[in-house]
Design a protein that fits this description.
By secondary structure, the chain is of the alpha+beta class. It has helices at residues 19-27, 72-81, 92-98, 123-135, 141-160, 170-175, 189-194, 197-207, 223-234, 284-298, 308-311, 348-365, 370-388, 391-405, 409-421, 424-436, 474-480, and strands at residues 31-34, 40-45, 51-58, 102-107, 112-119, 213-219, 257-263, 270-276, 315-322, 336-343, 440-446. A six-stranded mixed sheet has the order 1-2-6-3-5-4, with helices on both faces. It has a five-stranded mixed sheet with strand order 7-11-8-10-9. The radius of gyration is 23 Å and the shape is globular.
């Protein structure tokens, strides 16, 4: 296997892969620590720079929610983000900002992450704040109703009043059958309104214990000092076993599934396509081949679907990617490769599907051009390496793969695995798999739900919508509270 230093050679993108960045990634050795209460700690020190990143991943997401309690994981993200009972009256975020840092949180299918980046001098403050809210978050009737109202506003802004707001949630609903795999991360309004303090306290006890948590530290810190601080703030937290995660695996669909969604805010029709990805644990090589295939199809100026075939469909916007949130390897359960295209022509959806199918057929028949493959994988590796240069982002990605797979190293190895470990033959097999597999196809048409001819073929009302990362900044949402 070639070294990281070889990534991007003979590619126009090689200028981005500077020696300083490569050295920074390769010399950061990961260190692990497990406390007696089960808390897992991951440390990636870097003597270069003056900032740190802290990420705390809890093994709970919207797939983990109890039946009839949709939206509870996302609501809990909001509640816990306010800080613990020992924090200053203004809560978590203002304290971090005063120290020159920032923080936020996200809820995914299988994990909830709280993360921050700040000057290195703020390390103990950040650890103290995280331990405080892991010990006793501010769960009160007032906070519960305030954050429920904040989420209602978030849904209004990001789903109901946003064009194509049903993407990507509509694809899992069309493609999957297990309830856990079809959930809208925002939850159902009737469920949100029914949550009470005893339910929240049980959810906290079940999922927010040390044994269900990974704390990740990155950046400019001394490992010995960091270990001492971690033990000082987290070691006395009570151990409690987490509730077992549900089994979310299900067989592949046996037929293509189609749905039409009427969207009153859509200026043009659009089509979304979803395919089941190979299992990220048992079929890792196949998963990576699909990741490269997605990049070949829709990422970069020379992407195959940005050429002639989609021009006939009047496509004005096209995106292809892996992962419900556009991030690969961010779930240990069923994952999707998705395509989303906005088109001008009335029959553009069928034109897009025809272009997609013909491109997949050609890739399955004729191995992808070597030069295009090298350029595409080098571009993907360059972007991934640039992300790892930021301590806050790096803490999130390392902690995510550690929490899901016990493989934080996967984050550091991924750029080279993509660059040198995926062959044209593997991409051809991935294309053949998509060409013959059964998918979900969702058409978005301008108009009000319930208009004649615009109901879903599956008899489903317009799905609720997207919790993609393009949310309002946390400080703006907190002000709304």
């Amino acid at each position: 296997m070639r070294t990281l230093a070889a990534i991007g050679q003979r590619s126009p993108l090689s200028r981005y892969l500077t020696r300083a960045l490569l050295d920074r990634v390769t010399r950061n050795q990961l260190r692990r620590l497990v406390l007696d209460n089960g808390l897992r700690v991951l440390m990636a020190p870097n003597p270069v720079g003056a900032s740190i990143g802290v990420a705390v991943h809890y093994g709970v997401g919207f797939r983990t929610e109890p039946k009839g309690h949709t939206g509870l994981a996302h609501l809990f993200e909001h509640l816990v983000f306010q800080g613990g009972r020992r924090a200053a009256p203004e809560g978590y975020l203002p304290q971090v900002q005063r120290a020159g840092g920032f923080g936020d949180a996200r809820t995914r299918q299988d994990v909830t992450v709280y993360y921050a980046a700040a000057p290195a001098s703020a390390l103990e403050m950040l650890l103290a704040l995280e331990a405080d809210r892991m010990r006793s978050p501010r769960i009160s009737e007032r906070n519960l109703r305030t954050q429920t109202a904040v989420i209602d506003e978030e849904i209004r802004l990001m789903v109901r009043n946003r064009p194509y707001g049903a993407f990507p949630w509509v694809l899992p609903r069309a493609l999957h059958r297990r309830a856990e795999n079809t959930r809208d991360g925002y939850g159902e309004t009737v469920d949100l309104a029914a949550f009470d303090i005893p339910l929240c306290e049980r959810f906290f006890a079940d999922h927010y214990g040390p044994a269900n948590t990974v704390v990740t530290l990155t950046g400019a810190f001394d490992p010995g000092t960091a270990e001492r601080l971690v033990r000082s703030h987290f070691e006395r937290l009570s151990a409690r076993p987490p509730v077992a995660a549900p089994d979310v695996h299900e067989p592949l669909p046996r037929e293509e599934r189609r749905l039409t969604v009427a969207d009153p805010h859509a200026g043009s029709p659009a089509v979304a396509v979803g395919y089941r990805m190979p299992d990220p644990v048992t079929e890792r090589a196949g998963y990576l081949a699909h990741l490269v295939l997605a990049a070949l199809l829709g990422q970069g100026r020379h992407a195959l679907l940005r050429r002639g075939p989609t021009a006939a469909a009047g496509v004005s916007s096209l995106s292809v990617g892996c992962g419900l949130f556009g991030l690969p390897l961010d779930t240990a359960g069923p994952d999707l490769l998705t395509l989303f295209a906005v088109h001008e022509h009335e029959h553009g959806a069928e034109d897009v599907l025809a272009a997609l199918d013909s491109t997949l057929e050609a890739l399955a028949r004729d191995e992808v051009d070597g030069g295009l493959l090298r350029a595409t994988t080098a571009r993907w590796a360059a972007g991934s390496l640039r992300e790892l240069g930021d301590p806050g982002t790096r803490a999130q990605l390392l902690g995510l793969r550690e929490a899901l797979f016990g493989e934080a190293e996967l984050t550091q190895a991924l750029p080279e695995l993509v660059r040198t470990g995926v062959s044209g033959e593997q991409v051809s097999r991935a294309a053949a798999r998509l060409r013959s597999s059964h998918r979900a196809v969702v058409r978005f048409v301008p108009g009000e739900p319930g208009e004649p001819g615009e109901a879903g073929e599956a008899g489903e009302a317009a799905p609720r919508g997207s919790a993609r990362e393009k949310r309002e900044p946390r400080e703006k949402r907190e002000k709304a509270a």
